[in-house]
Amino acid sequence: MHSARPIAAETETKTGEMYKIRFNFEQPGVEPVTLTNIEAGYSLLEVALKNDIELHHNCGGVCACSTCHLYVEKGGDFLEELSDREEDFIDRAVNPKLNSRLGCQCLLQEGNGEIEVTLPDQTQFLGE
Ligand code: FES
Predict the structure, then answer these.
(1) pTM
(2) Is residue 98 part of a domain?
(3) Is there a domain that residue 105 lies in?
(4) What CATH number does the domain containing 69 carry?
(5) Nearest CA to ligand 1 atom 3
(6) Ligand 1 center to residue 11 CA distance, Å?
(7) Count of domains in the chain?
(8) Distance 45 CA to ligand 1 centre (A)
(9) Residue 32 or residue 125, greater confidence
(10) pLDDT confidence of residue 17
(11) Ligand 1 atom showing the smallest separation from residue 103 Cα
(12) Pocket test for ligand 1, best of 47, 55, 63, 87 (most atoms within 8 A of CB)
């Protein structure tokens, strides 16, 4: 008996699942940044930090603060759904809106498309 099945196995191969993400900033004078070829499986917080985009994350990304608060303008369906816990923390964020999310909880789902978010002015958290 020998298993001669050369091809077929790798059905999990990902093909072209990449996102384009535009970050807008409420902070005056900060220009929008558009990132391409972003893979699924990362949170918007991780994507921001990896690309030198400042986004506070006081709890370290475990949905226990609200400093990674952002607004999802487009492509919300590509993100992991809002949980009750996340909603609780959004209520404590500065100026929450209907499209508010916590960046650390916005995990990119498998797929591809365009996402656009706006980050609140990060200087408001520094207190100086
Ligand atoms: S970093 Fe604390 S809730 Fe996202």
Answers:
(1) 0.86
(2) yes
(3) yes
(4) 3.10.20.30
(5) 63
(6) 35
(7) 1
(8) 8
(9) 32
(10) 75
(11) 4
(12) 63
Looking at the chain, how many residues does it have? 128
pLDDT of 52-62, one tens digit each? 999 999 999 99
Residue 127 falls inside a structural domain: no
The residue range of the domain holding 107 is 18-120
**Residue 62 CA to ligand 1 centre (angstroms):** 6
In a domain, 7, yes or no: no
Q: Please, what sign has the CA dihedral across residues 54, 57, 60, 61?
A: negative
Q: Give 46-105 pLDDT, tens digit per residue.
A: 999 999 999 999 999 999 999 999 999 999 999 999 999 999 999 999 999 999 999 999
String of DSSP letters for 42-104: -BHHHHHHHTT-----TT-SSSS-STTEEEEEE-GGGBPPPPHHHHHHHHTSSS--TTEEEGG
